[in-house]
Specification:
Blueprint lengths: L3 E6 L9 H9 L6 E6 L5 H5 L6 E5 L16 H7 L3 E4 L2 H6 L4 H13 L3 E6 L3 H5 L3 H12 L9 E5 L13 H19 L1 H6 L1 E5 L4 H8 L6 E4 L6 H10 L1
Parallel strand pairs: 1-2, 1-8, 2-3, 3-4, 4-5, 5-6, 6-7, 7-8
The chain binds phosphoenolpyruvate.
Catalytic activity: L-erythrulose 1-phosphate = D-erythrulose 4-phosphate; D-glyceraldehyde 3-phosphate = dihydroxyacetone phosphate
Keywords: Cytoplasm, Gluconeogenesis, Glycolysis, Isomerase
EC number: 5.3.1.1
Length: 245
């Protein structure tokens, strides 16, 4: 039985005052079957991790593949763990686009993150042009093989399916589109890691998830939660999404 996961990606948003949103989330009754995760900007991780340890998990949005060294501006997986993070998002489409991250980069970062004891939330997703060309499953299959390291388990790996055309656009994939891709990802994981591990990895959907559409998305097979951008910034909205899980 997979636990649900509601993950908030604050992206490059959030000042110290916004930690009040995590405090407000923590003040709400804790859901029994759902893990809650906030990935704030790196500047807030250490403070965020002290707000509700054990109740609201904290994650990074990215890490370097090396543990330390001459990499100005980068943050390593052991640094994230040291600051109190237990998760890290890797391969988000904004990183793949803005920082030219390849599947091989994501895989190397994931290896480093696992060694540091972090759970990786690895993102995959197609562009609109790829979907229109009926290439969605090929793209997702390639990203899974290239980005996910060999030692994935139900504990250290979460996959987020995020169609790029649905991120921050207000457009969500239809339940049929989400179901097709999530079933495909599940089958691929089972084939690669065996049924036990393949069935234990949690699959999140991301792309304009809001309180108003969360119920419909969470009813889709193999959707174990959501990776939420804009609607995770305010506790009221994110709390409503969590309640729908
Ligand atoms: C995201 O950034 O991963 C995301 C899904 O953003 P939004 O919910 O704003 O579309």
């Amino acid at each position: 039985m997979r636990r649900k996961l509601a993950a908030g990606n604050w992206k490059m948003n959030g000042l110290c005052a916004d930690l009040a949103e995590i405090e407000a989330l923590a003040a709400a009754p804790a859901p029994t079957q759902t893990d809650r995760l906030i990935c704030p900007p790196a500047t807030l991780i250490a403070r965020a991790a002290r707000i509700a340890p054990g109740a609201i998990a904290i994650g990074g949005q990215e890490c370097h593949a090396m543990n330390a060294g001459a990499h100005t501006g980068d943050i390593s997986a052991p640094m994230l763990a040291d600051a109190g993070a237990s998760y890290v998002i890797l391969g988000h489409s904004e990183r793949r686009q803005d920082h030219m991250e390849s599947d091989a980069d994501v895989r190397a970062k994931a290896r480093a993150a696992h060694e540091a004891g972090l759970t990786t939330l690895i993102c995959v997703g197609e562009t609109l042009a790829e979907r229109d060309a009926a290439n969605t499953l090929d793209i997702i299959g390639g990203q899974l093989s290239g980005s996910v390291p060999d030692h994935g388990t139900g504990e250290n790996l979460v996959i987020a399916y995020e169609p790029i055309w649905a991120i921050g656009t207000g457009r969500t994939a239809t339940p049929e589109q989400i179901g097709e891709v999530h079933d495909f990802i599940r089958a691929r994981l089972e084939r690669r890691f065996g049924a036990g591990v393949g069935r234990s990895v949690r699959l999140l959907y991301g792309g304009s998830v809001k309180p108003a559409n969360a119920d419909t998305i969470f009813a889709v097979s193999n959707v174990d939660g959501a990776l939420v951008g804009g609607a995770s910034l305010r506790a009221a909205d994110f709390g409503a999404i969590i309640a729908a899980l």
